[in-house]
Design goal:
The complex is a heterotrimer of chains A (about 425), B (about 290) and C (about 350). Chain A has 18 helices and 13 strands. By secondary structure, chain A is an alpha/beta fold. Chain A has two domains: about 170 residues, D-Maltodextrin-Binding Protein, domain 2; about 200 residues, Periplasmic binding protein-like II (D-Maltodextrin-Binding Protein, domain 2, 3-Layer(aba) Sandwich). In chain A, a hairpin with a 2-residue loop joins strand 4 and strand 5. In chain A, helix 17 runs antiparallel to helix 18. The longest helix of chain A is centred in the first third of the chain and has 24 residues. Chain A is globular. Chain B is mostly helical. Chain B has one domain: MetI-like (MetI-like fold). Chain B is about 70% helix and about 0% strand. In chain B, strands 1-2 form a two-stranded antiparallel ribbon. Chain C is an alpha+beta fold and about 350 residues long. Chain C has two domains: about 230 residues, P-loop containing nucleotide triphosphate hydrolases (Rossmann fold); about 100 residues, Beta Barrel (OB fold (Dihydrolipoamide Acetyltransferase, E2P)). Chain C has a six-stranded mixed sheet with strand order 6-7-8-3-9-10, with helices on both faces. A five-stranded antiparallel sheet of chain C has the order 13-12-11-14-19. In chain C, helix 2 packs across helix 3 and helix 3 packs across helix 4. Chain C is elongated, with a radius of gyration of 24 Å. Classes of the chains: A alpha/beta (about 425), B mainly alpha (about 290), C alpha+beta (about 350). Chains in contact: A-B, B-C. At the A-B interface, helix 1, helix 3, helix 17 and helix 18 of A face helix 3 and helix 12 of B.
């Protein structure tokens, strides 16, 4: 909020001005790096480690996801030397690259390409060039509260991918675990981002974007999408198994952690994240799908990119290069459990971390069901309107109307890429 | 000694310079910018009326325009009426209303952004105290800004809560500027309290009311922060006011041309409406 | 019957008593002027009569009807305000017809009465103007016209001319007098200008500190003021006062100057008094009391002198172009009937004891 206001009021230009003044005064180089608003202890250790090794400081500005995107947009559109490096959400690579906001990394990482899990490189690539280095992959799991299941006498869902729940199985379980009198809900998605929700229509076989990657009408508001989102709305409005209006990741995590939510679809970061809740015993199961439909799970993750206009090109490259090292990636994994993008981290931890059944599920999903978000330079616009529509649908808006409106708006904003 | 002809301009210069730099130049830039487009690589080019032509075919624009006009048709008279009622209460206080003066200043002391956040909490569907109260008295929880049918009215309510006290001050100044002897003359002429209000107060408040209505209209056409903070134009586009569309175009979708075209249209609408309002509220003396 | 009777009327604002018991009877068609210095309570009294203020105690009767507790609307009075209090948003016509409109009179009747009043006041060409487009004198006329249209039991004027320039004030004074003679309504007129009071009123009521000091016909008050306050208040330039003791038919000041004693000294030998003489009563003479001319002010027809007598300034108004030079000595006298004596302690008039 605070940041959004500031950027809006002051404008990117004045900030850049103030920024360059600041750097002239500083003795060592400080790189400006807008970062995700993860807990401070998941961000600072990484920056400190790099600083220790290189003497280059990283000023990581932690912003909530929506603010991060807005802030980057404003600063990049100013087309000056700030920021130096920034987090790139995988599917946004095309958008940034197409507009000249990313430096091609092929030369710099020429020797390193083979060290990465190949699928993780795909989303950082645009026009056959690697623009954003993957910091990990991602996958979503069904977390459930063991205690609430036991109290209700419900069998825990199987962890084997071939025995995964269907959405049809899940609903009655969620209904049994919903107890409005004690504000307990049965089921929720961690948030309302298309990243999390697109597997719902995809499982029904819906096409969620035109084959050219620049058409929304007929897809975003297509029949499969409408059916899937109607099912989603019924969860909240008809069956009332989920808390309406809780759009933010943090809120649903808290609800699950405090036993007010029996099941949640969430990312691998929760494997460690949920440990902070005392007395919470949780289990994990594979992501559900529609009976007779496709098994689909979300994937894609954060990448890092360099502003081609940076005044500290060498330092920025040094930071990215350092992030590609095994030590940095190991540290990063310890901080936030994204499935690693380096093969060597997988191998190194095969006998330790990844023996957890949760990671077996993740490995299976990444190899078999993981479906990246639509490849389009207009992903940012696509996601923004679709997220709004999904939130509106959750709170009770007319499904077809919300999707049609989103499709029209997306098409409008896509015209600039055509 | 300097020629006295130029002296007034010298005194006006700082204000005129401010007006030029902070108002007229940006307006010029906005109108000029509405005729341009930005390529993906950031190059600016002249596109003529293309941005406007596209807007005319854009259902979102028409929907936002309708919402903006509807919003203003409701909120401006409402704020004027509420502000007037508040001013009358301060001017001729009823007994026991000392508390109310404090409550009146409160909304002015809170910034628009913060008041929007506070209302977000206050009206929240799961935790908000108001819904707790409504359930307790049996009315049942309301979605407020999360409901497609209620969101716009919720924003109108918040804006009125925030703005009425401010506009009240102008009207209060107007009330104080009516000489008490005019009321006394009317009393002796046989006017009842209602007739004094109808024939003396109301007509003599034309000018302050015109000012408030015009200034309020200009501000409400540019209504933004609560939309940004509470609804992001939703649900289902129900609160997608033109100003928010302009913001989104510029800062979310990097479509500066569309944003400036919307701003230019807004400017035009405000100008037309302000002129109409001034005409409507001209005193009979000025009309003569 | 448009009489008015006031009985022991009192008014306090909080602790402050503004009117300390007023008794006044006004006859039908009478023109009464309330005069006094500012703060004397004259305007408050007028507002009480109008009903704009509520009396703390006492009784107010208009036309035989007790109106003490009635609102202005039911008292049938009209008032002309000092600042005119015209309705700025109404034309002259609407201003004048407003009270009739409120009363629900028919349009034709309103129009007839407004036209009539406008004719009387010479406002017929201004009927469609707004107050903002009128001169001060015209506004005053409209304010008067608004009262005339009502044809009320009582006309109340609250310093109606004090916002006009001197020349216009004299002209309007004449108009109001003519108006009263023509209409014959009962009028109560508040002013601080004693000349206005003298010229207009059938009867003057002099007020001071919330009380009536004296009431009566203008010239009676002028010739026989009941106390030093009334003597000093009426007349311009105002009456000269010199303190002294009555000794053998004369008034002797502290420094031994001897002033003529006049008709009232009889039986008051030795009493400490204020000796009073109006400037125009003092005339140069070959015998009498003398003083030193300090200032000479020729006004055209008259000559005003400031003369030091017994160490005190004395204003002398000579009805001629008398040649006089500052520093000259002058000998003066006053006709015995024009000498006023007042008690030095409480200021009340002293008459000769038989």
């Amino acid at each position: 909020m605070q940041i959004g206001r500031r950027q809006f009021m002051a404008g990117a230009a004045s900030m850049a001005f103030a920024g360059s003044l600041g750097r002239a005064a500083a003795q060592s180089v400080t790189l400006s790096a807008p970062w995700m608003g993860w807990p401070e202890n998941q961000v600072t250790p990484l920056m400190t480690a790099f600083e220790k090794e290189s003497g280059i400081r990283i000023s990581a500005e932690r912003l909530p996801i929506a603010e991060l995107f807005r802030t980057l947009e404003v600063r990049l559109q100013a087309r000056n030397e700030l920021p130096d490096v920034y987090l790139v959400d995988g599917p946004l690579t095309a958008s940034y690259a197409a507009r000249g906001h990313l430096l091609a990394l092929d030369e710099m990482l020429a020797a390193d390409r083979d060290r990465f899990v190949p699928t993780t490189l795909v989303q950082g690539t645009y026009d056959d060039k690697l623009y954003a280095m993957p910091l990990g992959a991602s996958s979503q799991l069904l977390f459930y509260n063991k205690k609430l299941f036991a109290e209700a006498g419900i069998a825990e869902p199987a962890s084997a991918p071939d025995q995964r729940l269907t959405w049809e199985d899940l609903l009655p379980i969620a209904q049994q675990l919903t107890k409005p009198e004690i504000s307990q809900f049965g089921f929720a998605f961690e948030n309302t981002n298309p990243y999390q929700l697109l597997p719902v229509p995809l499982s029904r076989g819906a096409e969620v974007i035109g084959p050219d990657g620049l058409t929304a009408s007929g897809y975003v508001d297509g029949e499969g999408m409408i059916e899937a989102m109607t099912w989603y709305q019924e969860l909240f409005q008809t069956h009332k198994v989920g808390p309406v209006g809780t759009f933010q990741t943090g809120v649903t995590q808290e609800m699950f952690g405090s036993g007010k939510l029996a099941m949640i679809i969430g990312g691998t970061w929760n494997l460690v994240g949920f440990e902070k809740f005392e007395g919470l015993e949780f289990g994990v199961a594979p992501h559900p799908y529609f009976a007779g439909g496709k098994q689909v799970t979300p994937t894609g993750s954060w990448h890092i990119g360099i502003n081609p206009r940076t005044a500290f090109m060498d330092e920025a490259q040094a930071f990215v290069k350092w992030l590609s090292t095994r030590d940095a990636m190991n540290l990063w994994f310890d901080l936030r459990q994204y499935p690693p993008s380096l093969e060597e981290v997988w191998e190194e931890r095969a006998g330790t971390t990844f023996v957890d059944p949760a990671w077996e599920i993740v490995r299976y999903e990444l190899a078999n069901t993981a479906t990246p978000r639509p490849a389009t330079p207009a992903y940012r616009e696509y996601e923004d309107f679709l997220r709004t529509a999904m939130q509106d649908i959750q709170t009770g808006s007319d499904v077809s109307g919300a999707l049609t409106q989103a499709a029209q708006n997306i098409d409008r904003e896509m015209r600039k890429y055509r | 000694m300097m020629s006295s002809r130029w002296t007034p301009f010298l005194f006006l210069a700082p204000a005129l310079a401010g007006l030029l730099i902070f108002r007229l130049v940006p307006i010029g830039v906005a109108v000029g910018g509405s005729l341009t487009g930005v390529s993906l690589m950031g190059d600016l080019r002249f596109v003529g009326a293309e941005n406007f032509e596209y807007l005319l075919t854009d259902p979102q624009f028409w929907s936002s325009l309708k919402i903006t006009l509807f919003f203003n048709v409701i909120i401006n008279p409402l704020q004027l009426a509420v502000a007037f009622a508040l001013a009358m209460l301060v001017f001729r206080p009823l007994p026991g209303l000392w508390l109310y003066r404090t409550l009146l200043v409160l909304p002015m002391a809170v910034s628009t952004g913060i008041s929007a956040v506070l209302f977000g909490l206050f009206l929240d569907g799961n935790l908000g105290p108001l819904n707790g109260f409504l359930e307790w008295i049996g009315v049942g929880a309301q979605p407020f800004h999360r409901g497609q049918d209620q969101a716009l009215y919720t924003l109108i309510g918040i804006a009125t809560w925030k703005g009425a006290g401010y506009w009240m001050l102008f009207l209060l100044a107007g009330l104080y500027s009516i000489p008490s002897t005019v009321y006394e003359a009317a009393t002796i002429d046989g006017a009842s309290a209602w007739q004094r209000f109808r024939y003396v107060t109301l007509p003599l408040m034309r000018k302050p009311m015109a000012f408030v209505l015009v200034a309020d209209t200009a501000i409400n056409f540019l209504f933004f922060a609560p939309v940004y903070i509470l609804t992001s134009g939703g649900p289902g586009g129900a609160t997608s006011l033109l100003m928010f569309e302009a913001y989104r175009s510029a800062f979310t979708f990097s479509d500066i041309g569309r944003s400036l075209a919307i701003s230019t249209i807004l400017l035009g609408i405000i100008l037309v409406i302000v002129v109409l309002e001034f005409r409507l509220l001209r005193s009979p003396e000025e009309r003569a | 019957m448009s009489t008015m009777n006031i009985e022991n009327l009192r008014k306090s604002f909080g602790e402050t008593e503004i009117l300390r018991g007023i008794d006044l009877d006004v006859g039908d068609g009478e023109f009464v002027a309330l005069v006094g210095p500012s703060g004397c309570g004259k305007s408050t009294l007028l507002r009480l009569i109008a009903g704009l203020e509520v009396a703390t105690s006492g009784r107010l009767v208009i036309g035989g009807r007790d109106v003490t507790a009635l609102p202005p609307k039911e008292r049938d009075v009209a008032m002309v305000f000092q600042n005119y209090a015209l309705y700025p948003h109404m034309t002259v016509r609407s201003n004048m017809g407003f009270s009739l409109k409120l009363r629900g009179a028919e349009k034709a009747e309103i129009e007839r009465k407004v036209t009539e009043a406008a004719d009387v006041l010479g406002l017929d060409t201004l009927l469609d103007r707004y107050p903002g487009q009128l001169s001060g004198g015209q506004r005053q006329r409209v304010a008067t016209g608004r009262a005339i249209v009502r044809d009320p039991k009582l006309f109340l004027f609250d310093e109606p001319l004090s916002n006009l320039d001197a020349k216009l004030r004299v002209q309007m004074r004449t108009e109001i007098k003519a108006l009263h003679q023509r209409l014959g309504n009962t009028m109560i007129y508040v002013t601080h200008d004693q000349i206005e009071a003298m010229t207009l009123a059938d009867r003057i009521v002099v007020m001071h500190s919330g009380r009536i000091e004296q009431e009566g016909a203008p010239l009676d008050l002028y010739d026989r003021p009941a106390n030093a306050f009334v003597g000093g208040f009426l007349g311009s330039p105002s009456m000269n006062f010199i303190k002294g003791h009555i000794r053998g038919g004369s008034v002797v000041t502290d420094d031994g100057s001897v002033l003529p004693g006049g008709e009232a000294v009889g039986g008051h030998e030795g009493r400490t008094v204020l000796w009073g003489a109006r400037p125009e009563s003092i005339v140069p003479a070959t015998e009498g009391f003398s003083g030193m001319i300090e200032v000479v002010e020729p006004t055209g027809p008259d000559t005003q002198l400031l003369v030091r007598v017994a160490g005190q300034p004395l204003v002398v108004l000579l009805r001629s172009r008398t040649p006089a030079t500052p520093g000259e000595k002058i000998t003066m006298t006053v006709s015995p009937s024009e000498i006023h004596l007042f008690d030095a302690d409480h200021g009340s008039r002293i008459e000769a004891k038989p």
